[in-house]
């Protein structure tokens, strides 16, 4: 989830929080390979858990070390979305989810990408992540491991599948609700003609 800036933003690239975010991004292809190659679900879940912990860690360090940056604000949501996309691709490849689920989630991100040119006109690269978006991402990141665990037999697999779909349905609903709120924020931003992103050189 995206870190919340508490102070001034920097243009620095090689900060510790940004390096952690880059390492998390590098784990996306590894996660996808584990899921669709050897189908090593346990190791794939370990990668997902490490990713989740690093997601919290980079935000904590950014605030603690006062190293919030524009790049960090972009890397965090990009990493979240790539993990979601990789999990969706893996679940579809394994026939665990139907095709419409594999369309509805990336469709929301495609919808938001269409709003980026409007943000650019005001100097913004992305909108700050709000708590509804965080809740949606968290629900989906709970759902995907459970759905993978549900791809088997026995009571544990059955329970995992039930809870996985419960989180997935809530997650998909919140994901789109958050997307519509982002679109509303963009509309308000465009209506306020005097509002622009602050310069990095500003205090």
Automatic annotation (TrEMBL):
GO terms for cellular component: membrane. Belongs to the CDP-alcohol phosphatidyltransferase class-I family. One of its GO terms (biological process) is glycerophospholipid biosynthetic process. It is a multi-pass membrane protein. One of its GO terms (molecular function) is CDP-diacylglycerol-glycerol-3-phosphate 3-phosphatidyltransferase activity. This is Cardiolipin synthase. It is found in: Membrane. Coiled coil: none annotated. InterPro entries: CDP-alcohol_PTase-I, CDP-OH_P_trans, CDP-OH_PTrfase_TM_dom, CDP_ALCOHOL_P_TRANSF_CS, Phosphatidylglycerol_P_synth. Pfam families: CDP-OH_P_transf (PF01066). Keywords: Lipid biosynthesis, Lipid metabolism, Membrane, Phospholipid biosynthesis, Phospholipid metabolism, Transferase, Transmembrane, Transmembrane helix. Gene3D superfamilies: 1.20.120.1760. Its main location: membrane. The chain crosses the membrane at residues 12-36, 99-119, 131-150, 162-184.
């Amino acid at each position: 989830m995206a870190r919340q800036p508490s102070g001034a933003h920097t243009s620095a690239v090689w900060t510790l929080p940004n390096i952690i975010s880059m390492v998390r991004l590098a784990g996306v292809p590894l996660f996808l390979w584990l899921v669709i190659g050897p189908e090593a679900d346990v190791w794939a879940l370990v990668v997902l858990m490490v990713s989740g912990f690093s997601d919290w860690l980079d935000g904590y360090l950014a605030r603690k070390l006062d190293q919030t940056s524009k790049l960090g604000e972009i890397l965090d949501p990009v990493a979240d979305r790539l993990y979601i996309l990789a999990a969706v691709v893996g679940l579809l490849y394994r026939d665990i989810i139907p095709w419409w689920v594999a369309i509805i989630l990336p469709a929301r991100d495609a919808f938001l990408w269409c709003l980026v040119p409007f943000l650019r006109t005001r100097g913004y690269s992305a909108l700050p992540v709000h708590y509804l978006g965080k809740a949606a991402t968290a629900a989906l990141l709970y759902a995907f491991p459970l759905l993978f665990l549900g791809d088997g037999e026995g009571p544990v697999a059955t329970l995992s599948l039930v809870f996985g779909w419960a989180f997935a349905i809530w997650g998909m609903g919140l994901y789109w609700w958050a997307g519509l709120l982002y679109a509303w924020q963009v509309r308000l931003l465009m209506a306020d003609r005097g509002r622009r992103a602050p310069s990095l050189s500003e205090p």
